[in-house]
């Protein structure tokens, strides 16, 4: 091992540690390692920048825009609602939801599909007295499986395609990955519909939990005539800087004031509703003129008025709220919403609401004002996972949605018949969407997940460093020493398992970029078809089912389903094994033997 190989492997190990322990956002960590390689001369400026101009990366950006136009219309979730409206059985609902979902996922970004359908399934489950936890992990898993059917099904496929073209290989056709993708999707559905869902818990949502245990979440204080701050603002009364409590609503006769502003004035007889660490209520009881209301039948529904609604939301992976406290983010004024509770890893965070530092996947229970919908639509900070009472004025234009779907289908046909490349087709699709005013430039910008693009683009430079220094050859030699005596199929299993391990711990695209140069070295040394190993890498990098951090969509359903880490292990491990066995054997017989 040379010094350069050792240095590159050390930096890769540090990068993996940073990603696993979440010391910063994944895109920042990977970009930092890329910068180190650039500054130390491991790679040149041109090599560091090649990922930013790569066809695969740019195609992913365009697909975000096209998928955003389709998802914004609400047509997909609307059509699925009609399909399950009269369905009462678990198996029937799974067939009517999950098979079409995997089809949609073959052509659209998985994340918005899961974010859009989670409230639909939640509502159906509540109406039929079925725990949502039986459906949400399978929903996420089926979108992941569906994404393996086509070249455009997931960013990982396009990243591998970009790496192949860079190596001078032909690349995948639009449906080539479907040779593996279709069988594993069918097998995955059969497993989830017969065995998988039985392994899932019967969990309640955060809203139901808070509803049942409202006394642990909410406290009510009544303002008496001797309160020293009558007719003064909440700020002046010192009710904004309490140790463990957060004022979310004021009930004044038949009027309910929420979210409460710092300038709201307090009057005699007001009922002040607090949330947070309710055990710290003694601090409030020491204030003259405030009396704790005991034996109250206060519930979540009692907090709502005609202009407010209760919403569960999951903090997204590219949220501007990440690593900030709720107070620092000025959440109340930014979203016209008060945070009632925050759950992480199925546990309520026992802290003053304003002091909680938000992480990806955190589930928030919000009491939202009338401006919430407008403000939510203008950001990518979180996924709403309960149905919203959307005003008619905000309903998306269905006609525009069908135009977007028509353009997408036309582009798919042009790619399938070899008239245009994927990049050219998606470029044309975006131009048509803008010219036909299906979406505005602002909508297009909002649809792009820049953090994902930075991670993918930076990963290309990391892959170049691994290949250029000889680290890929060194790792390939080590793998072959162990696996080659056992035969080609054993080598394929080793490559799949290593890729799958990386993707469970890191990210799909990063895992693909790390393993691709190693796989190509193995293909050259064993004189086997490199396309087969590229297919193996693409599928293994997507098939992450064992941990909630393995795929973005798993974290979207983590909180709403009330899951624990081990739920993913129990259900995902058999699915991982099924997908691995099918993939390895198909790759061997179609591309290798």
Automatic annotation (TrEMBL):
Main subcellular localisation: membrane
Keywords carried by this UniProt record: Membrane, Repeat, Transmembrane, Transmembrane helix, Transport
Domain of life where this protein originates: Bacteria
Transmembrane segments: 6-21, 28-44, 56-76, 97-121, 141-160, 172-197, 402-435, 447-467, 487-520, 532-551, 571-591
Record localization: Membrane
Domain (RCK C-terminal): residue spans on this chain: 205-290, 298-382
Membrane topology category: Multi-pass membrane protein
A Pfam family matched in the record: TrkA_C
InterPro entries, A to Z: Cit_transptr-like_dom, DASS-Related_Transporters, RCK_C, RCK_C_sf
Protein name per UniProt: SLC13 family permease
Originating organism: Geobacillus jurassicus
